[in-house]
Amino acid sequence: MAKTKLYIARHGKTMFNTIGRAQGWSDTPLTKFGEEGIRELGVGLKAAKIPFRAAFSSDSGRTMQTMEIILRETHNQDLPYRHDKRIREWCFGSLDGGYDGELFQGVLPRTVALATGKPDDQVTYPELAAGIMEVDTANWAEPWEVIKERIYSGFEAIAQRLEASGGGNAIVVSHGMTIGTFIWLLDEKRGKTPLDNGSITVVSYDNGRFTIEKVADMTYRHKGREILDKKK
């Protein structure tokens, strides 16, 4: 059986990413710049000659748009492709669509859960989830126990499905905080690594256990940009 490995991409840059709004379960399309970035990723993955056996994304429009470009550029349009809502982004509830600065530097630091004075990069995901729930007037935000269960089980189900079919590589498109949370559950230090749009995080899966191989790797995008620049 081939080694089971997930290549997890963060979706391309969107309208809300560009203007600094928290996207969550709301959705905006990739910008022209975002599409070009994912084209670079696809070209870089093709150049690396990674044989993908399956494709998975969340059910959000931005991840599906990203996957469409990746599959086209890697010539994998016929690859089996499934959506899984468990690997959606976090839900910010009534704060969805708000400006990042107002949310993360204004509202949330004043909550009981986050009034610790910690720098942003030291705030844990459970603390962040508690803060969001505290100020979500719509009561749509998920508690930490629900967030971690849905995200881990989503990636685990993908790995198990791939393993059951003989292993190999899957291309997966998800979201910044979702990927960060998954990696944090495996290794808290590496789970706080910033993830650029179009970055690749690689995990392998064997005997019910995940192993982190790479986090936030931008080399595929950089290689793709080199190739495209040479063609101009």
UniProtKB/TrEMBL annotation:
- SUPFAM superfamilies named among the record's database cross-references: Phosphoglycerate mutase-like (SSF53254)
Q: Does the keyword Isomerase apply?
A: yes
Active-site residues, record numbering mapped to chain: 11 (tele-phosphohistidine intermediate), 89 (proton donor/acceptor)
A Pfam family for this UniProt protein? His_Phos_1
Keyword vocabulary terms for this entry: Isomerase
Report the enzyme's class at the first EC level. isomerase
Q: Could you say which EC number(s) this protein's record lists?
A: 5.4.2.-
Q: Name one GO cellular component term.
A: cytoplasm
What SMART domains is this protein classified in?
PGAM (SM00855)
* Record keyword Ribonucleoprotein present: no
For this UniProt entry, the molecular function terms from Gene Ontology, in alphabetical order, are: isomerase activity; phosphatase activity
Binding residues for substrate: 10-17, 62
Matching PANTHER family, A to Z?
BROAD-SPECIFICITY PHOSPHATASE YOR283W-RELATED, PHOSPHOGLYCERATE MUTASE 2 PARALOG
Q: What is this protein called?
A: Phosphoglycerate mutase
Q: What organism does this protein naturally occur in?
A: Streptococcus ferus
Identify the taxonomic lineage of the organism of origin. Answer: Bacteria, Bacillati, Bacillota, Bacilli, Lactobacillales
